[in-house]
């Protein structure tokens, strides 16, 4: 049973198959066809909806999400808002009115998704007013594509929506709605029933003990957290998922624990929750988030899922390799830790044993080390990497130490470049050392040709990123009386 609220009205949907998406539930079961299917992969944003959850202060907070790759069962205990739920009778919501007046819609297919992304932005502005900067606007709309308007009218509408009367939906007048949603949400977070009683093929454990038992009983089940990658097997490969274990509500997988040496990040923690940590302690990682994915994806995707997916072009693993991260693995046979560089074995093959899962990821503090991350892709936002490079090092008396050079898109797995690292270790950041490191890259990697770039392009691009690092270090190093004064910046840009 999926028990949730839709545009202020309670819905209870029974006998929903494990691989049903929120989009399918809306269009095929509930007759809400305003939400569209475009790419069916979370790229175009036509299916964008707003998900409301309790904010802990008696209200609801909304975030945008791609309905096409969101498991329908994850609507349980939430308030789902679609484009049909915004107008107040004949009176349009400010977002809708602004889009009409600014001619922000032409063919109209993508418009509902754009409206919903702007709705979540508008809600945020209402409750936490802040200047609507270009960066905030790009972040809000980065996951919504439109082939007709050229985007300027949409941007104009976004900038003007705050000037309209606050015509809010009728459901927003219901004083009981936040409490009703919170009651469902709280019930959904209670410890789950014994694993053996789940008969629908979709299990949603709430604690680590239940997850371990499910993995013991069903070691071949598909694990899902945000669904931003797994659900592509359904939408793109038409592969049925008949046995799904949803980990997004497991309490122990949703914690961020600070230690003296760094942070243990639960595998189900979303990137949205990680943004403040990255901004304060890993500026280069925070900068990558603007290129990593859309707001719809960051609201739901998890670092644990990105690592477990083991894609050679995943954006997170190279950064974790450069940082020297560790993984805490768990399962029916107990717990263990291993360095992340020992996790990736071959294409889509990892060190996970039968029934195991990633419980947490340890991010070491940078301390005196520096971190730089560069991503090359055809689109600036919401695109898959052709090459991603993550470099970590420290400067000690003018020479490079603890050099970690990690790449994605250069091999069957994300991996470091030990020969290139050795060429730089203990050397000053001078042209000769970097020339040797660039030469070593050609010996270490034999990238594949694909639609995102040829093998030669990737080799040249990776070498150029190393040269970019050298030029940065040269710029940050000042010589005064033959003594190097090294500026230890955070290299956030």
How would you describe this structure to a colleague?
This protein has 493 residues and is of the alpha+beta class. The chain has 16 helices and 21 strands. A hairpin with a 6-residue loop joins strand 18 and strand 19 (415-416). It is globular, with a radius of gyration of 24 Å. The two termini are 47 Å apart.
Q: Which helices and strands, and how do they pair?
A:
Elements lengths: L1 E5 L2 E5 L8 H8 L18 E7 L5 E7 L12 E3 L12 H8 L9 H17 L6 H8 L10 H9 L16 H12 L13 E2 L4 H10 L4 E3 L7 H4 L8 E3 L9 E3 L3 E5 L4 H11 L1 H10 L2 H4 L4 H7 L6 H8 L2 E5 L5 E4 L4 E3 L2 E2 L6 E8 L5 E7 L10 E10 L2 E10 L6 E2 L1 H7 L6 H14 L10 H22 E4 L2 E4 L7
Parallel strand pairs: 1-5, 6-8, 7-8
Antiparallel strand pairs: 1-2, 3-4, 3-5, 9-10, 10-15, 11-12, 11-15, 13-14, 16-17, 17-18, 18-19, 20-21
Please summarize what this structure is.
The protein is an alpha+beta fold.
Number of helices: 16
Q: Biggest sheet: strands side by side, in what order?
A: 2-1-5-3-4
| Cα-to-Cα separation, first versus last residue | 47 Å
Shape: globular
Tally of strands: 21
Question: Describe the biggest sheet?
Answer: 5 strands, mixed
The secondary structure category is: alpha+beta
Q: Helix proportion of residues, in percent?
A: 25-40%
Beta-strand residue percentage: 15-25%
- Roughly how many Å is the radius of gyration? 24 Å
Low-pLDDT parts are 194-199, 479-493
Mean pLDDT: 92
């Amino acid at each position: 049973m999926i028990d949730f609220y839709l545009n202020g009205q309670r819905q209870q949907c029974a006998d929903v198959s494990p691989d049903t998406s929120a989009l399918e539930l809306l269009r095929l079961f509930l007759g809400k066809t305003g939400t569209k299917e475009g790419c069916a992969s979370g790229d175009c944003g036509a299916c964008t909806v707003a998900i409301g959850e309790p904010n802990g202060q008696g209200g609801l907070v909304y975030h945008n999400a791609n309905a096409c790759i969101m498991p329908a069962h994850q609507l349980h205990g939430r308030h789902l808002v679609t484009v049909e739920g915004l107008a107040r009778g004949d009176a349009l919501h400010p977002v809708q009115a602004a889009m009409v007046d600014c001619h922000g819609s032409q063919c109209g297919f993508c418009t509902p998704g754009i409206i919903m992304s702007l709705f979540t932005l508008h809600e945020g502005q209402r409750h936490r007013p802040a200047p609507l900067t270009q960066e905030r606007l790009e972040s809000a709309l980065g996951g919504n594509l439109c082939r007709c308007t050229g985007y300027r009218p949409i941007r104009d509408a976004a900038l003007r929506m705050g000037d309209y009367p606050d015509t809010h939906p009728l459901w927003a007048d219901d004083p009981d709605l936040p409490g009703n949603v919170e009651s469902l949400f709280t019930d959904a977070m209670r410890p789950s029933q014994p694993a053996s009683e789940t008969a629908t093929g979709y299990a949603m454990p709430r604690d680590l003990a239940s997850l371990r038992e499910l993995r013991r009983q069903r070691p071949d089940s598909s694990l899902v957290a945000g669904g931003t990658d797994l659900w592509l097997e359904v939408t793109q490969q038409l592969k049925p998922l008949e046995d799904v274990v949803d980990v997004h509500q497991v309490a122990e997988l949703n914690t961020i624990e600070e230690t003296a040496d760094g942070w243990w990040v639960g595998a189900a923690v979303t990137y949205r929750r990680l943004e403040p940590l990255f901004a304060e302690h890993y500026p280069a990682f925070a900068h990558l988030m603007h290129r990593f994915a859309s707001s719809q994806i960051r609201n739901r995707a998890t670092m644990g899922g990105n690592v477990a997916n083991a894609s050679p072009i995943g954006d997170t693993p190279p950064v974790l390799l450069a940082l020297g991260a560790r993984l805490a693995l768990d399962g029916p046979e107990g717990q263990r830790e291993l360095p992340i560089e020992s996790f990736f074995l071959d294409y889509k093959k990892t060190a996970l044993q039968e029934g195991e899962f990633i419980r947490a990821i340890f991010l070491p503090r940078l301390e005196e080390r520096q971190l730089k991350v560069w991503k090359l892709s055809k689109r600036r936002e919401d695109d898959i990497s052709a090459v991603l490079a993550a470099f970590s090092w420290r400067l000690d008396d003018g020479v490079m130490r603890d050099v970690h050079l990690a790449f994605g898109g250069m091999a069957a797995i994300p991996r470091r470049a030990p020969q290139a690292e050795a060429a730089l270790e203990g050397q000053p950041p001078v042209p000769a050392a970097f020339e040797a490191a660039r030469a070593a890259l050609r010996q270490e990697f034999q990238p594949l040709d694909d639609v995102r770039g040829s093998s030669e392009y990737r080799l040249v691009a990776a070498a150029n990123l190393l040269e970019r690092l050298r030029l940065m270090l040269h710029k940050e190093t000042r010589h005064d009386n033959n003594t190097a004064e090294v500026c230890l910046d955070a290299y956030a840009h």
